């Protein structure tokens, strides 16, 4: 729920401390945050999900619940909220870190490098291909 937590923290940071306990002010702050033009695509997607349920978000938010807990509670009603994630940073990964990534993330790394892994089925094959194409990642910088 990393994107949801970031959005909730940003909304909380944009509010005055005394207004955090008032539901209408929380809803207003969410509307103002989501109306901003400088939001990234993932933040916009979270706004798309929470805009219709502002009241349900404002209730636990105004009681002082942490952003992580609010997002986990929202995830029970709409599972797409925690499905939104930031992209994997591949700049300074150590070689042993690749084994901790999921296959989907390994495929994304290969796609960023413009490489396809034809015939790759096992995770180990994807990891090996990522290691083999590591020189391509350094050339982009």
UniProtKB/TrEMBL annotation:
Assigned protein family: Belongs to the ARMET family.
Localization annotation: Secreted
GO cellular component: extracellular region
Pfam family, one: ARMET_N
Sequence ranges assigned to domain ARMET C-terminal in this UniProt record: 97-133
Record organism: Attheya septentrionalis
Database matches in InterPro entries: ARMET-like, ARMET_C, ARMET_N, SAP_dom_sf
Domain ARMET N-terminal: residue ranges: 1-87
Keywords of the record: Disulfide bond, Secreted, Signal
Main subcellular location: secreted
SUPFAM superfamilies given in the database record: SAP domain
PANTHER family assigned: ARMET-LIKE PROTEIN, MESENCEPHALIC ASTROCYTE-DERIVED NEUROTROPHIC FACTOR HOMOLOG
Name of the protein this chain belongs to: Mesencephalic astrocyte-derived neurotrophic factor homolog
Entry annotated with the keyword Transcription: no
